[in-house]
Design a protein that fits this description.
single chain; alpha/beta; four-stranded parallel β-sheet; 109 residues; Rossmann fold; 4 helices
């Protein structure tokens, strides 16, 4: 069985350390449950990148995934809301879930 490839989406702008520790922790937890994970925060802060550059890179990575896991606060993130809209369109609503739901699904499996 091919593992579900999940993209992590959540707020970054304006948060301490750009919320990168939350992205990293989510990636470790999802991977430990057998998911294949794409963490857009794994690149860290890239000198010279604009918000648009990060969004462009994230959307390219999202297109290679099957699903999206949402971190707390995603609703307040302009970039995450865009990623969710794309994911709902391409993957379907059932593949767009808070990270807790992805974890719970494997816990009962």
């Amino acid at each position: 069985m091919t593992p579900v490839k999940i993209y992590i989406a959540g707020p970054m702008t304006g948060l301490p350390e750009y919320n990168l520790p939350a992205f990293a922790a989510a990636a470790v937890e999802l991977e430990s449950l057998g998911y294949e994970v794409t963490n857009p925060g794994r690149h860290g802060v890239i000198e010279g990148f604009t918000w648009q550059d990060y969004v462009r890179r994230g959307l390219i990575e999202l297109l290679a995934c099957d699903a999206i896991a949402l971190l707390d606060g995603w609703e307040s993130s302009r970039g995450a809301k865009l990623e969710v809209q794309v994911a709902e369109t391409l993957f379907g609503y059932e593949m767009v879930r808070p990270i807790e739901e992805w974890i719970a699904m494997r816990a009962v499996a």
